[in-house]
Amino acid sequence: MKKKRVLTITLTVALFVVAGGVVLVSSACQKSGEHSAAAKRFHCPMHPDVVKDGPGDCPICGMKLVPIEEEAHQAAVAGTAAPSGERKILFYRSPMNPQETSPTPKKDSMGMDFVAVYSDEVDAGAKGPEGLATVTIDAQKQQLLGLKTIEVKRASFETSIRTTGRVAYDERRVHHVHTRYEAYVEAIEADYTGKYVKKGDVLVKVYSPELYATQREYLMALRAAKSTSGSAIPSVSQGGQDLVAAARQRLLLWDITPQDIDALEKRGEPTRTLNIYAPISGFVTGRMAYHGMKVMPADSLFDIVDLSAVWVIADVYEYELPRLSLGQTAAMTLSYWPGKSWTGRVTYVYPAVDEMTRTVKVRLEFANPKAELKPEMYAQVTIHGQSREALVLPDDVVIDSGTRKVVFVAEGKGRLSPREISVGDHAGGQYEVTGGLSAGETVARGANFLVDSESRLKAALSAMTTASPTKAPGERTKAPEPPSPSATPAGHAH
């Protein structure tokens, strides 16, 4: 009897051990299978509700899908966030068509899982500017997106104007060399374009029969005046002096210099050729005189330009005109000489706006004593404006839709709230903020396109949900009943 009882107990214990082993092995296999299944599921870092059974791209933002744990996936499907508390699911929507909704999980025509829409997402769409909603992006996703934040601060804001310009001649320093009589070119001293000449240098020697005769008349007047100077009749001696003065004046009017007239008096004989001198110091930019050619008074022999000062013609947009005034200082740099800067000032604003570019030409003057600035050079010009203390933001932070300007304000815990702001001047890659933000607030910078797209999507979902609050999501609109026969207008009888 004792032996039988001991055998029974032994068998019972053995059965329990075997059953326990089977349960442990089964549990281990189940966990291994779950882990393997979880490792094969992927989701979007930006849109966790987009889940696939294999690698791929997010259909919403195009980002690469990353592996997820099954627990996180179950939390997303069930409408809960495992570590952060309960979230209420309102309905499910297609990842490709947000307007295709369902009250229960399902797949779309492409076999993709519908994604859950939570109540906090819809509530976020009701706040902020129209068409935008608050988005939540955790720190890891922000790093993947290259999203950063900056603090809004007051800083020195200068309303300078940055533009491009072209170096040009000062039109007041361009001289054309002419003769005032018919002549023939005998010899050329300024014999090539680009030659630098000083004021008073001989440019060309010319022969003029008319001028030769005038020289002889002047010498004859001198001799007559000398012979009549001792006359007892005052009118005779005075007449001789008047004749000399008239002949001399005629030579002066023909641009014969006093030095050449004095030399003529000393020689006592007319010279065959006379010199034409440079009226200014500068560069010969045009040479039209050639040996033996006949020259008329209307013909230009040389063009000479004084480059000791030059103009820079810059283009300024019409919206920048209120910040422009005569006398403003400007800094200019050239690509051919890095690190070198020239200082000038605004001297003239042209009266017309270019209808194609919507710009106004502005003239600036720059000193050029060493002729370093060459006409037709391209230049970068900064016209300095007034400097003031203001609330400023980099222009890449502001999302400009054309009708409004929006920034995303960081509210902590990854929440980015859209806010419409008003701005003043825009200069130097910065906006002057005149409303909508305060110093010390933090705004998002970088990945603006993705954040804006996500915000618009959530706002669209919110608008779609709140448009018909009495109708369940996914419910189809009932088709209108056909009109009754009595309501049909009577036609003409035939």
Report the structural category: alpha+beta
* Total count of strands: 31
Q: Which term fits the overall shape?
A: rod-shaped
- Approximate helicity band: 25-40%
Question: Radius of gyration, Cα only, in angstroms?
Answer: 46 Å
Let me know the largest β-sheet: 7 strands, antiparallel
Mean pLDDT: 80
First-to-last CA distance: 115 Å
Number of helices: 8
Please report which band the strand proportion falls in: under 5%, 5-15%, 15-25%, 25-35%, 35-45% or over 45%. Answer: 25-35%
Total number of domains: 4
Give me the secondary-structure topology:
Blueprint: H1 2-39, E1 42-43, E2 51-52, E3 66-67, H2 70-78, E4 80-81, E5 85-86, E6 89-93, E7 101-102, E8 115-118, H3 119-125, E9 135-136, H4 139-145, E10 148-151, E11 153-158, E12 161-168, E13 174-177, E14 183-188, E15 196-197, E16 202-207, H5 209-228, H6 234-253, H7 258-267, E17 273-277, E18 282-287, E19 294-295, E20 302-305, E21 309-317, E22 329-333, E23 341-353, E24 359-367, E25 378-383, E26 387-394, E27 399-400, E28 405-412, E29 415-427, E30 430-435, E31 442-445, H8 448-467
Antiparallel strand pairs: 1-2, 1-3, 4-5, 6-7, 6-8, 9-29, 10-31, 11-26, 12-21, 12-25, 13-20, 14-16, 14-19, 15-18, 16-17, 18-20, 21-24, 22-23, 22-25, 23-24, 26-30, 27-28, 28-29, 29-30
Helix pairs in contact: 3-8, 5-6
Can you give keywords for this protein?
494 residues; alpha+beta; conserved putative lor/sdh protein from methanococcus maripaludis s2 fold; Elongation Factor Tu (Ef-tu), domain 3; seven-stranded antiparallel beta sheet; six-stranded antiparallel beta barrel; 8 helices; 32% strand; rod-shaped
